[in-house]
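Student: Send me a single protein entry containing the residue sequence and its fold in token form, directly below this note:

Tutor:
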Amino acid sequence: MTETEKILETRKDFYAFLYRMYLEEPPRAFADDLANGRISFSNSIALDEELSEGFRLLNEFMEKRKGKTVDELYEDLVDEYTLLFIGPHRPPVQPYESWWIDGKLMGKSLLEVKRACREAGVAKSKDYAEPEDHIAFELKFMHHLCELGFCAENEEKRRECLKQQKKFLNDHLLKWVPDFCDALYGYKQSDFYKGIAKLTKGFLLLEDAVIGELLE
């Protein structure tokens, strides 16, 4: 595998991890892997301050929970996800682009995300209830584009995928997700997601430069 392919694979895998953290509560299998040391939060990619802090916070989260059973850890993760993103009341930190850009849900930004998806030939599954401007969907869309780039048959197709990624990153994710992450990090009842917020922000802030280098 070439150095470029390693970078493309790392990006693809990191988007996969991030979108799953926002798509639904972390599954019990994830809690099992955490509790039994099969997942470790190490500095495995080029770091900036935000990423370093994210890894530190996640390691601190696990350190505080040493000795907890898998079920207890899983319950902690589910409770936090439910509090932050489901309710019973309105989520304290809204995970929708329209909320941050348009000041309301189902705004113009949602239509623009839908347009980007149509142009890329991507359609939302009927089983997914959230609108396309939910953070999980936008990160999953980027993961899809990264997969296409990683599997591209030739350099021309790879460059086209990278251009699509750069455009969506700058037109959408970078316009609102850093602010969303700051709010998520600052919410007093977030714990595990403080680390996820820092990882998300740090990774996306690096992405523009990384894609630019890949295009060069």
